[in-house]
Amino acid sequence: MHDYNCQCGNNCASRVPIFQGLSPEELGKFNALLSTREYRNGEIIYNAGDEAANLLIVNTGRVKIFRLSADGREQIIRILHPGDFFGEAVFFHNQPLTASAQALEPTVLCQLEKTQAEQVLLGNPEISAKIIAALNERLLNAESQIENLGTRTTGQRVAGLLLDLANEQGTDTIALPLTRDGLASLTGMARENFSRRLQDLEAQGIIAAKGRKTIIIRDRDRLEAYAN
Q: CA 129, 131, 134 angle in degrees (round to 5)?
């Protein structure tokens, strides 16, 4: 892990939706406050229970937000990509963080220390409104995920996940962002059950696996029907 001054120009902040209302001059001033930190593949960024110290922005790489149950089982909450922000708890309270964060590949984060983040928030009401909107969207997504776990079959969850990944990546040839264990956790399933559902879809000709890292959607209409 290495710290250094931000060398990303306006690139880091400007790609984040909550900062898109800032002028180029304001973005330049904002980026001057940022520092960056590199993380290795698999390195923990923070653990549940740590104090919220920084607002964090993914500059390059990917980050996993997750929780561990009392018996050590992992539940993935979300996957973050370049432009996504996290650590927003610095704005709201001094309580410990409730989830952990881990780099899924070599990752560079831009970070803004707590006091500076609060000053940015107080000085830019439009950013405050966008943060509230972003957090509301996360709440809605969390509610949707809870509903999916409680009301949808395992087959529907797997089909829905594949459609979400295809839409996110803009292609029906999906590069899987996690291991099978990770994808199973994301859908609230055991790995064996998740793998069986993939095999069912492949046996029906709806998808095709290409190695362990790629899945091709062969029949999107049937996959959408399967998800619903």
A: 110
